[in-house]
Write a structure and sequence with these properties.
Blueprint: H1 3-19, H2 24-35, E1 39-46, E2 51-58, H3 62-70, H4 78-82, E3 91-92, H5 93-96, H6 99-102, H7 106-115, E4 117-127, E5 131-140, H8 148-171, H9 178-186, E6 191-195, E7 201-204, H10 206-214, E8 218-221, E9 224-227, H11 230-244, H12 247-250, E10 257-260, E11 266-273, H13 277-283, E12 290-296, H14 304-312, H15 316-328, H16 331-338, H17 342-356, H18 361-372
């Protein structure tokens, strides 16, 4: 099977998983193999609390999966660095820290090394101020570290993974049987519209009808769904037309099309093709090519860590040392948590003092607290 054929099949599987969550483990297995990895996972992380949870995984033994989120996530130096990457941008170990330093960390020595894992390629699928939904592919020692070919293939599937995860989170279905799909969508808080390739509405849920009745965001013109935001109309029409030609034709467009209402309120639209598998069964009764979900846009503000790094021009390593000192305490304890020597911590700490204009660790604690809480003077 050619790469194009593999990709087309894989994209269809990814979109089916948006409606049938039992398919995610198989999807992760196939995406890991396509990209060139040993294992893969969908999970979320919180940089502030150093916590997280796996949603679905493939290739990591349950013991190690549990061990990571119970213990090693707190010592993983990649957790903080991942939050500075752009959404959909693949990030490997070398993009975040010197690889030699990574090999000395507890996360690698006690968790990655026993499994034969030598690298990861991570992508943020969605981010808030402090947390992120992540897709990760692990590289085994027999395959070597992340290379350009792995990055190229990752970029081919990530937009589709992101679309499926965002829509699946909204719909939250266990199955997508056509007999129950209409009842399920009518219970959604998000507006949902089934449209054909010409943007003609063939079904709308209760929230969708409410949006049309308001008239500020969307309207119906000769049976077609038309956004009042003219800049978004062309983008959506292109996605509808491509959806009729199949999953692969949709490409990377329409992941999150911004919509602005007449009153200035911002929304976002996600388009899901209904052309194969479970999605086709769900949409058959409506003769629809695509389903569009419309939600209010949330305002994402930069995390305190991002603000501190930007203001004081800290390198990723300097920021990791700063946060470790604040959270853990002494340079020796911070070095253990980060997997680097105490002397290395002290070297970076002196640079942090110089850049932030502080002299003591207590000053750093107060500085960080000032960005985390508005009530700290």
């Amino acid at each position: 099977m050619s790469e194009a054929e593999q990709l087309s099949t894989l994209i269809g599987e990814i979109y089916d998983a948006a409606l049938d969550q039992t398919l995610w483990v198989g999807v992760l297995e196939n995406t890991a193999h396509f990209v060139g990895g040993h294992a893969a996972g969908l999970f979320w992380k919180d940089a502030a609390s150093k916590s997280g949870e796996a949603a679905y995984g493939y290739g990591i033994e349950p013991h190690y999966r549990q061990l990571y989120f119970e213990k090693y996530i707190k010592f993983d130096p990649l957790t903080i660095g991942q939050f500075f990457a752009e959404v959909e941008e693949p990030v490997s170990v070398a993009d975040l820290m010197p690889y030699d330093e990574f090999l000395e960390t507890r996360a690698y020595q006690e968790w990655g090394r026993p499994q034969g894992l030598v690298d990861t390629l991570n992508v943020a699928l969605d981010k808030t101020a402090t947390s992120a939904a992540m897709y990760c592919v692990f590289r085994h020692e027999r395959d070597g570290r992340v290379d350009d070919e792995m990055r190229r293939r990752m970029r081919l599937i990530v937009p589709h993974l992101r679309r499926a995860v965002l829509i699946g989170r909204v719909i939250n279905l266990k199955t997508a049987e056509a007999a129950t799909f209409a009842d399920t969508t009518d219970g959604l808080g998000a507006g949902m519209f089934f449209v054909d390739a010409s943007a003609r509405i063939v079904h709308a849920n209760a929230s969708g009808h409410a949006l049309l009745a308001e008239g500020s965001l969307l309207r119906v013109v000769e049976g077609r769904l038309v956004p009042n935001d003219a800049s978004a109309e062309q983008a959506l029409n292109e996605v509808y037309a491509m959806a009729e030609r199949g999953d692969a034709a949709v490409g990377v467009k329409g992941i999150a099309v911004p919509l602005i209402a007449l009153d200035g309120e911002r929304h976002v639209a996600h388009v899901l093709p209904l052309t194969s598998g479970a999605r086709r069964r769900a949409g058959t009764r409506y003769a629809a090519a695509a389903a569009m979900l419309v939600q209010k846009a949330t305002l994402d503000t930069p995390s305190p860590q991002e603000v501190i790094r930007t203001i004081y021009k800290l390198t990723p390593t300097e920021l990791r040392v700063l946060l470790a000192i604040v959270q853990v305490g002494s340079p020796a304890e911070a070095g253990e948590a980060l997997g680097i020597a105490e002397s290395t911590v002290k070297t970076h700490l002196h640079r942090v003092f110089a850049k932030t204009g502080t002299k003591r660790q207590a000053d750093l604690v107060k500085l960080v607290a000032g960005y985390v809480s508005p009530f700290v003077g």
